[in-house]
């Protein structure tokens, strides 16, 4: 796949590349190498947005993805919610990029006919003890520039959503839902129209610096999948780009630690939090809006979302994961199973705001993994977008901890990265 992608870009014939690999493997000849203008590592929604933006601004972009297609990781395993920008610390990247990203995303979807719906959201307090937290969320949202928020008494909120139980609620009219696959498909198409090349089933396994330039090390994903972890991890190809965007999502931090010569003091430890979703069956959809409880440690609580077909889902919860090795993160070898008995934890949480939830009405849905920069019991971390001014390496941008609201922020992150690079 690496060779074919480069061949499509007109840079290096696949047959020559394959022959060079075979010769290198048999005789110890130096690993074949090529040059490139801009390489985006990772074809999730953020990587796709960055690739489209750089290509739109005239850069020759190669997108490298370990999976067989785009968006198979976190980008396809989330709530598909367009966030307003309420929860995040004022002046943080999450706050600024979410508010800007939401504006860009609604406009992008409207202009291109991508399915979305501005449903609105109710954040609910289910006890008097939670009411001060709701006031704090309101204040933070207003400070972030979300000016359409409105506090509702219980009678007002339950009048809008008759199945809801709460003592107070915060209405966010600008929250919504989106068909994330259609969004990513559009981003891929536009990036290709601007000249970007996509290379799937190919993994960036590390890199090293020569003359302040990052040399990326590549392996075919199928070969990496057979790696025994005992012998050295040898690259099959080296590409030397002018620009590198590390948008590898769940593997962004482990990959950066494999960039020999990059100061690891700028690379924090990764934390992984699995979130499971359960679908509502045997009942008519009880709500017409998104319903969110007060946020919890590691997430926004077990909330109600709807997809564009009206399917109701509850989640995600938070389950911290330890012991993820680099290869597993590169190849997205996470456990995404949803055990039916986990629903026992969902029923009491959901019934705080939806008391009529019937026993046996939840069925396993899907799960996702959050790439987090803070662990259990720690304050939520901001996005980390590192450029040369931080780590000192020209042309390298690391995107760390791009969890929620990453989908909402994706187009704004792309603008931000392009601006950092002076593109």
- Number-wise, the strands total 21
Give me the oligomer status: single chain
Summed up, the helix count is 13
CATH classification, class level of the largest domain: Alpha Beta
At the fold tier of CATH, the topology name of the largest domain is FAD/NAD(P)-binding domain
Q: Name the overall outline.
A: globular
Low-confidence stretches: 12-27
Q: What Rg, in angstroms, do the CA atoms define?
A: 22 Å
CATH superfamily of the largest domain: FAD/NAD(P)-binding domain
Q: What's the overall average pLDDT, rounded?
A: 92
Span from first to last CA?
28 Å
Cofactor: FAD
Keywords: FAD, Flavoprotein, Oxidoreductase
Pfam families: DAO (PF01266)
Family: Belongs to the L2HGDH family.
Short description:
The chain has 423 residues and is of the alpha/beta class.
